[in-house]
Amino acid sequence: DFVISLKSPFDVRNRLNMIGEDISTKYNKREDTVEDLVEYIKVCVESKIGNYMVFFPSYKYMELTYEKIRDKYEELNVIIQENNMSEEEKEEFLNLFNDNKETHVGFCVLGGHFSEGIDLTEDKLIGVIVVGVGMPQINIERDIIKDQLNENNRGFDYAYVYPGMTKVLQAVGRCIRTANDRGVILLLDN
């Protein structure tokens, strides 16, 4: 085995990484921490006019947060990814990010269309917030993978943690797409 290490072509000074580790995104804690989550989002998106995307591990969690943020801060321009959007609806959603004269906040799902297959370059997207680690739901298929790869007690990592972190990396990658892009990345989870 060997390791290859390559320097990134992207200037690290163009990216501000922040972590909020005082919020639990565990399923049974979401109701208790959603108010704090809303405050993190508000502070981040109000720091600079521009477009932001917030990625959630599930539609349900995204919708809970959307309801809370709309109730508390109705002046924020928040748009939400709908389940089963048509190609035309996806295009309309993304077109809202072409305007950066005011702040737009897109709520999206980790592992979905907007976290993996889009390029919003230049100043079309200046910030990404990722809520949680996006681990797959515990199920029989994942447990089979876990059992098969459980040498050195790492099966859970291979079946659940690594796929979740891959989703996080894909979402974070939406922020900086070219060498000229600048942006903020906020990761929220304890």
In short:
The chain has 190 residues and is α/β, with parallel strands linked by helices. The protein has helices spanning 30-46, 59-72, 87-95, 113-116, 140-148, 155-172, and strands at residues 15-20, 51-56, 78-80, 104-109, 127-131, 183-188. Helix 1 (30-46) packs across helix 2 and helix 5 (140-148) crosses helix 6.
Please tell me about this protein's structure.
The chain is an alpha/beta fold. The protein has one domain (13-188): Rossmann fold (3-Layer(aba) Sandwich). Helix content is 37%, strand content 17%. The mean pLDDT is 90.
Shape, principal axes of CA atoms: globular
Strand order of the largest sheet: 1-6-5-2-4-3
CATH superfamily: P-loop containing nucleotide triphosphate hydrolases
Q: How many structural domains in the coordinates? A: 1
CATH topology: Rossmann fold
Number of strands: 6
Average pLDDT figure: 90
- Give a short account of the largest sheet: 6 strands, parallel
Spell the H/E element sequence: EHEHEHEHEHHE
Low confidence ranges: none
Helical proportion, percent range: 25-40%
